[in-house]
Amino acid sequence: MEVKTSLLDNMIGVGDMVLLEPLSEDSFLGNLKKRFDHSEIYTYIGSVVISMNPYRSLPIYTPEKVEEYRNRNFYELSPHIYALADEAYRSLRDQDKDQCILITGESGAGKTEASKLVMSYVAAVCGKGHEVNKVKEQLLQSNPVLEAFGNAKTVRNDNSSRFGKYMDIEFDFKGDPLGGVISNYLLEKSRVVKQPRGERNFHVFYQLLSGASDDTLRKLKLDRDFSKYNYLSLDSAAVSGLDDAANFRTVRNAMQIVGFMEDEVQSVLELVAAVLKLGNIEFKPESRCNGTDESRVKDKNDLKEMCELLGIEQSVLERAFSYRTVEAKMEKVSTTLNVAQAYYARDALAKNLYSRLFSWLVTRINESIQAQTKARHKVMGVLDIYGFEIFEDNSFEQFIINYCNEKLQQIFIELTLREEQEEYVREGIEWTNIEYFNNAIICDLIENNQNGILAMLDEECLRPGTVTDETFLDKLNTICADHQHFESRLNKNSKFLNDHSLPHNCFRIQHYAGKVLYRVEGFVDKNNDLLYRDLSQAMYKANHSLIKQLFPEGNPAKVNLKRPLTAGFQFRASVGTLMRNLQTKNPNYIRCIKPNDKKASHIFTDSLVRHQVRYLGLMENVRVRRAGYAFRQPYEPCLERYKMLCKRTWPHWKGPAREGVEVLMADLQIPTEEISYGRSKIFIRNPRTLFFLEEKRKQCLQDLATLIQKIYRGWKCRTHFLLMKKSQIVVAAWYRRYAQQKKYRNIKSATTMVQSYTRGWQARKLLRELKHQKRCEEAVTTIAAFWHGTQARRELRRLKEEARRKHAVALIWAYWQGLKVRREYRKFFRANAGKKIYDFTIQRIVKTKDDFLVSCLPWSVTKTDHIQDQFTEEKKAVYEEKLEASEIFKDKKALYPNSVSQPFKGDYLEISKNPKYQKLNSAVDEKVLLADVVNKINRANGKGTPRIFLLTKKNFVLADQKTGQVKASIPLPDVTSVSVSTQKDGFFALKLKEGSASAVKGDFLLSSEHLIEIITKLHRIGATAADREKLKVDISDEFLVQFKQDKVCVKFIQSSPKNGNSISCKRKNNRLLEVSVPTSP
Ligand SMILES: Nc1ncnc2c1ncn2[C@@H]1O[C@H](COP(=O)(O)OP(=O)(O)O)[C@@H](O)[C@H]1O
Ligand SMILES: [Mg+2]
């Protein structure tokens, strides 16, 4: 939504002087100063812009500012030159009205800057495109060129325009620039030859000497040193903040953009150089025979160089500086020139050369920038003309300039009043006559065709006879004496006679802007602007094409005997044209004011500004503007601005804006005489009323602002809340999703874990079962295999045994038979053959019988001859014992193999022979089958005690080894079984029949080296006794032994040889006796 603002917003002082209350010169100045101090350099008087020169760059010309002011109404924003430029441009574009922008003010007040600002604004807002941009660029770049040639440093302004400029910018119907036309007015050409103290010649001279390349300067025969040139003022050649060299480059670049050809630029520079050279030509007097002095060129070098530059024959020019030819009717009279006249001629030539060059430049620029189409176009004229000048010493130029300003003031008053009047008529408001000062009378004093000052000056110049400035003043004195704006010392009007402030050769004009004293000296000459014909003809003869063009009157074929037009006449004519031109256009005024004389920022010199305010007629301007109504505004913006002051119009008024405004004003009880309703505008008579409205609006705005703030804050909070709510839902949804996902993942992984554990467990269980099953199957197989193995081995053993027995029986039978035979036939053989047969038989036996028998007979079969001796009953019993031992123990007890090679001696103690055992022997009444020392194992600790063991057919006896005292005598029938281990030990338990008398003390646990023999013998006794059962032999590593009441388990374990080689027996507990047998290595 577009925000409607107003000039009235945030005003410093008042933005429009029309609203000043009370209106006086002091309040006017006070307002200007206040605004100036706040860097508000622009203030309006209605539609007129007052511009104060800030003398510093302000940040108010940025592209953003251009955008701000673009397409906005004039009173919508604070005062700005852009507002005026925009208004002018838009009414040109949209309403098809030609515009002119009149910029006035004294030198240094900022006119040229203002004109540039207007042009740059228009360039920025108008159309774009390649062609359009080129045109814009050319129009803008014409400025630096004209400034270089037409501006100079003066005491008032470092870049003072020394010519008047009016530029028409032409636009097409769309508002795009098509081209332009520049008109120049009265260049201050006297500056070329002489500059006031502290001022400079035109910029171009300094720029050329500082900025041109050495090569260019050599071609132009110039020297970089300013001091070499008479026409250049030296005391202020360098100006701070002005870079001549850089500006020279800018100018050359601008000339190129504007469309100057390279040779044209060169020609222009040659002419500038020629002017400098011309200034260096000096003259000396040369006496002639008739007593008069004739001038001669002093040093011809400069003349020569100048002639070379311009292609002029040196002698022609030299002559033109010495002679003057006057043609009258058919006669030609040649007179000599004295030195003074020669200098006058030189300077006149320099001035003419330069001013004509300047005019040519303007023409040339116009050629470039002129619109290419002939189509109808709209025009915006920008007038940047020198302002009103009041110097100490005012001459012809000031007179002309002030005349121009007088005319501009006139047109200003006329147009302002006319505009005001037209507006009243347009709006249907009654016109009240306005009192104002009309300067038409002053204009008339100057430009009246019969008795105007300019006309009289021309008359004087044209009059034959002696004409001097004094005769001119006399004439003024006679003719203008009665004029109330004219004063002079010699005025016939007696009231001025005594005015001693008026010097004799001066006259004073009371301009609208103040009184100005003019010195008449030079008026006639300057008006004549005389250039001797010889000089213009010499110029025409030049080879230089440009110089030839500049002096067309030098063409001998077009000799014009008429006097050339005077400067005053020409100026008056061009001002007249300008005024007529301006009158056809819609005027826009920019009135520039200079705040101080020091070119300094922030200084506001009251008196200086007051003076300018006066002569610019600004107070008048305000009065005219306020004469009827101080303020006016179209109904729409007025209603828009104040509608909040009335309930009926707020917030919307439905109906015509005018009615709304009427309702509003009635509601506010504004007195009817204070306001008038025009057709499209409301007119407010007093600023007071306006301020009343503004004040009410301000109060109301505050309330509204609070309301808006309240609603806005509510809206903002609610929006924010809704947004947060929405966001919260989104966040929550996302979070929930995230949490659920996380939970799901957890559950999933837990499930997977439990599953995997369960599966693992099941699998392991299954595996265990399967393994068990398999093991069972394998065990069955193994058991079956073992069983079958055992069965088979048992069967094999039985079969082998059977075979062996059969064989042994056969063998023994054979032996027996052999023995019987040998016994029988021994007597037959004894003599010789007995031995042979015996040997043979033994050999046969040995060879044919199996290993078993051999192994049974290791100790005896070495010599056959013993067999015969040994095979006694005794021996046979021994064999049978061995055989029996084999049956009992072979492959069952590890001790057995050792016993095989040992002969079963039986009585190891030789008991019958040893007297030591006499007593014992006698105690045993039967034959002792075996006597040996055994270890009786102590039932309590497992330690062994040596005992003599005697075995008879009926008993076995245990006796003390030393004393031979019988400890126990057990009848063999009481022995039910013997238990031995499978190992190499000699332990054996003799188990007694339960209930028998011997069994009272329990079984015997004994240990003997001859275990095999003892058991075998015990077994044999049992086997041979018919009354007894066979003795049972248990071979097992674990058997029970009855010790008194307790049954103790004797357990055999194999110990590693590391723990010693001896067999140890230990009582482990009540029930266990452990025998550790070292494994054989
Ligand atoms: N609007 C402005 N902003 C900044 N400086 C300005 C402005 N107007 C003028 N000036 C300064 O004042 C000087 C004189 O201005 P200028 O336009 O040449 O004066 P005039 O043409 O009226 O003689 C400029 O060179 C510039 O330094
Ligand atoms: Mg200027």
Could you walk me through the main structural features you see in this protein, from its secondary elements to its overall organization?
This is Unconventional myosin-Ib. Pfam families: IQ (PF00612), Myosin_head (PF00063), Myosin_TH1 (PF06017). Residues 893-1079 form the TH1 domain. The protein is an alpha+beta fold. It has 34 helices and 31 strands. The strands form eight sheets. Strands 23-22-21-20-26-25-24-27 form an eight-stranded mixed beta sheet, covered by helices on one side. A seven-stranded mixed beta sheet has the order 1-2-16-3-12-6-7, sandwiched between helices. A hairpin with a 5-residue loop joins β22 (955-960) and β23 (966-971). The longest helix is centred in the last third of the chain and has 143 residues, at 687-829. The radius of gyration is 78 Å and the shape is rod-shaped. Residues 850-854 and 857-868 have low confidence and may be disordered. Bound molecules: adenosine-5'-diphosphate (ADP) and magnesium ion.
